[in-house]
Amino acid sequence: MSAQIGINGYGRIGRLALRAGWERAGLQFAKINETATDAAGSAHLTQFDSVHGTWPIECRAEGRAVIIDGQAVDYSSDASLTDTRWSGCDIVIEATGRHHKRPESLRHYFDQGVKKVVVAAPTEGALNIVYGINDHLYDPVEHHLLTAASCTTNCLAPVVKVMHERVG
To answer: Which residue is catalytic, options 59, 89, 151, 155?
Structure first.
């Protein structure tokens, strides 16, 4: 059974998360919420990225859905986190940049049955993971609120780790 993934905030981070996970076994993208554009705009930006290039998988909009490689992903443009229905999602990627300062603002996800929330920014009370550096600390039974750290941390930490291991 695949984990159902939702994305709140479909800017570059949200879109790249979907691209990276789209063909991974065990993941199925079920929901996108983005306020800056509609489903057609998000479909276009998913397929055509000015930095990362054209994604070879067809994306288009149809009603309240983004159709990716023939599969419908529910789409909404709710400005308020409490207006968005996340039921059915096992994991939500919180990539808006708005809901990470106060962890209690993320409670709405869990109240709707979401099992894990991964925030694309440092978040108080979350396990802060940098893959390849401290991802071994993740315990799926214990950790439900996670953060992918900051852009700076993800760029700097691997360099510092190598320097620490090789130079001291």
So the answer is: 151
This prediction has a pTM of 0.89
49 - beta bridge partners? 53
Backbone dihedral angles phi then psi of residue 60, each to the nearest 5 degrees: -155, 170
Query: What 8-state DSSP symbol labels residue 77?
Result: -
Backbone angles phi, psi at 120, to 5 degrees: -85, 40
Q: Tokens 């950790």 map to which residue?
A: 143
Is 59 one of the annotated active-site residues of the chain? Answer: no
| Residue appearing with tokens 């550096």 | 133
Per residue in 109-139, pLDDT (tens digit) is 999 999 999 998 888 889 998 888 899 999 9
First and final C-alpha spacing in the chain: 45
Three-point CA angle 130, 155, 90, nearest 5°: 35
Q: Using one digit for the tens of pLDDT, what is the confidence trace for 17-66?
A: 999 999 999 999 999 999 999 999 999 999 999 989 999 999 999 999 99
76-103 pLDDT tens trace: 999 988 899 999 999 999 999 876 667 7
- Pair of tokens at residue 33: 């919420």
